[in-house]
């Protein structure tokens, strides 16, 4: 945001400002205020007990076309399905802890025994495009709250029908 | 992340899992651990006094191709240049407060007298693609810390050579 362009394109850009901005006109506003209080954003659980989902910036609500930002809270013991998607995904753990299961082989028909990664407050990680993964709140005493950033909204999630834990215990 | 795909494409996807994942093979890893402690990420100020910039997930460091996430802190009175970029940008204010100046007319040769938006802790906003904008920490007593999400990394920033405040006081 604060990097400085030192190339001649800066001056060129100023003189061609009008043409450039017409070429990249902003998305239409949706009537919502530009600055929004996150604590006032409606929550949903998509029918999954123990989940709270907020769309901080989204394609349908805010006209985002390239990125989407969610705030999700998982109660102790709850988790996502094993899933994958053909978009980039970045997580920031705001509070709580848990386990990320990441397919050790996303190129086969089955993801195989997953890698287990401990996630903790103020940690960040990203999921490689199309790698099967699952997030668990394995902390019995605290909610797991994560900020989630995805590309290419709206996300299309492919849910895998088997469970990592059966692989872990087999 | 936890939305469930209910269409037949789920089963189709499972049977064609191998082909699909080969078509979207993940970015190469950069040797950094998958889960990183944000408090251990190096900071830079890009030569701007009062700025602290961290790349939480980036194109050069982590192989991101579609989104990039920064953590930036502005000391009291500091600000970004007036700038614009042809990517989406989402802000989340983690602490502090300030003012967002957003060009009232990004389609002209000059951005014109900007809209002023008060930003506060736990607020979020996004910048329309190619709209000229500037972020100021107008709080004399506290740092302004924001999480910044951009699309299409690495960002190319066009810095405008005039200042909003001259428009505000003219």
From TrEMBL, chains A, B:
Top-level taxon in the UniProt lineage: Eukaryota
Chief location category: endoplasmic reticulum
Keywords, comma-separated and alphabetical: Auxin signaling pathway, Endoplasmic reticulum, Glycoprotein, Metal-binding, Receptor, Signal, Zinc
Glycosylated residues in this chain: 122
GO biological process: auxin-activated signaling pathway; cytokinesis by cell plate formation; positive regulation of cell division; positive regulation of cell size; positive regulation of DNA endoreduplication; unidimensional cell growth
Localisation: Endoplasmic reticulum lumen
SUPFAM superfamilies: RmlC-like cupins
Signal peptide limits: 1-23
A Gene Ontology term for the protein's cellular component: endoplasmic reticulum lumen
Gene3D superfamilies the UniProt entry points to: Jelly Rolls
Residue numbers binding Zn(2+): 83, 85, 89, 133
InterPro entries: Auxin-bd, RmlC-like_jellyroll, RmlC_Cupin_sf
GO MF terms held by the record: auxin binding; metal ion binding
Name used for this protein in its record: Auxin-binding protein 1 isoform B
Taxonomic lineage from the root: Eukaryota, Viridiplantae, Streptophyta, Embryophyta, Tracheophyta
């Amino acid at each position: 945001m604060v990097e400085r362009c030192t190339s001649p394109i800066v001056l060129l850009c100023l003189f061609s400002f009008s043409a450039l901005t017409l070429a990249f006109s902003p998305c239409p506003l949706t009537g919502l205020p530009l600055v929004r209080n996150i604590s006032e954003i409606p929550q949903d659980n998509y029918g999954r007990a123990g989940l709270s989902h907020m769309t901080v910036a989204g394609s349908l609500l805010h006209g985002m076309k390239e990125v989407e930002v969610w705030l999700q809270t998982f109660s102790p013991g709850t988790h996502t399905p094993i899933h994958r998607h053909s978009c980039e995904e970045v997580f920031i753990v705001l509070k709580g802890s848990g386990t990320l299961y990441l397919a050790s082989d996303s190129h086969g028909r089955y993801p195989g025994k997953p890698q287990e990664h401990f996630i903790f407050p103020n940690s960040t990680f990203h999921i490689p495009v199309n790698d099967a993964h699952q997030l668990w709140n394995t902390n019995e005493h605290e909610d797991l709250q994560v900020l989630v950033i995805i590309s290419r909204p709206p996300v299309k999630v492919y849910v895998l029908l088997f469970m990592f834990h059966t692989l872990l215990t087999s």
